[in-house]
Design goal:
By secondary structure, the protein is mainly alpha-helical. The protein has three domains: 25-69, no CATH class; 86-203; 210-399, Orthogonal Bundle (hpI Integrase, Chain A). It is 48% helix and 7% strand. It has 16 helices and eight strands. A hairpin with a 2-residue loop joins strand 2 and strand 3. Helix 2 (86-97) packs across helix 5, helix 8 (210-219) packs antiparallel against helix 9 (222-233) and helix 9 (222-233) packs parallel to helix 13 (338-348). It is elongated and about 85 Å long.
Amino acid sequence: MQNSTSAPRRRNHQAAKPYPDFPLTAHPSGRWCKKIAGKLHYFGPIAIDGVPAWREALKEWERQRVDLLAGREPAPQTAEHPACTIREICNRFLTAKKGEITPRSWKEYDTTVVRILEDMGREISLASLTSDDFDRLKAGFPATWGKIRRWNEIQRVRTILVNYSWEIRKTIRLAEQVDPGPNFKKGTGKDMKAEINRGRAKHGLRKFEAKDIRTILDAADTTLRAMILLGINAAFGQEDIGRLPIDAIDLQGGWVTFPRPKNSNDRRAKLWPETVEAIRGVLTERKEPANPDVKPLLFVTVRGHAWTNPIYGATAVTHELDKLLERLSMKRTGVSFYALRRTFRTVADETNDRRACDLIMGHVDGSIAERHYIEGFDDGRLVKVAEYVRNWLFAKPEGGSNHG
């Protein structure tokens, strides 16, 4: 018989709360519990194979909380009617959007899903999510992220867990829309604009001066020179460059007619003689395409591949210009290939022909009325815009250019 004066048996499975306001208590039996109306209720083990399981217990508490506090017996999860888990809704979303959105956007959502599952847990019930879960996810965003990147990530999370889950609520038997709480939301359009303006004030305008573009053109090889000229002449971004087909170009007449890959909006621009000459040089040096998909494209790498990737985009175009800018000691934060497009718009707007500038940029809205307007558009207006930007770029310093 044990001596009554011996030390009391030590309780096993004691655990500290993961954070001060954690609603559950560690029970000596090794489970998380909570006393409600004088009765203990259990919500899962403190640890599984030595790994803390407080998140799972918390989700189970949230699933039962409303019923327990109302004095009702919570509905059990059964094999026939399982609660939709976070993993299930994420997989459903990625499957549904495959092919519906661009590969690059799909990859961004896939990365967001990885973050959701790692932070919130894979087998947690979607219906049990609370604002605390979303706030913790937000708090875990990398400190290096700027506001706009954080807002974009918040929007992707909301699209999956809030909007899409509610869209298919009947399929997954979701009774109420998931509420991420008041803190988990992106900035307004006004906030976004203010943040962009702050970035411009910090890093300066993300555009090139005319003298800088001339310096870059003089140092560029045949391919990069043609890319740069298309950027400032036709307002092409790196994605446009990577996807530009040969048959979109009329070298004889000096035109490029190529809908934007981003939104399929109509776009047309008059090509300068310098741009036409550069494109002819590219065609002369063009490598044999490595596969049929590359054959229609104007720009082909030295190994015969495309300059753009379905997931990562035309980063190779940006990288190529960045290397040259570094070599010329001209690299500035936020100023890379896409800055050519911004520069074009800044200069072209001085013509006061917004419609012509929009058509060159591919900013038309795609409506029937807009398309009808474009079909009858006077090419002479496009020529005037092209000549204005060309004069700005190649004007001699004594010509009185205001842009350098």
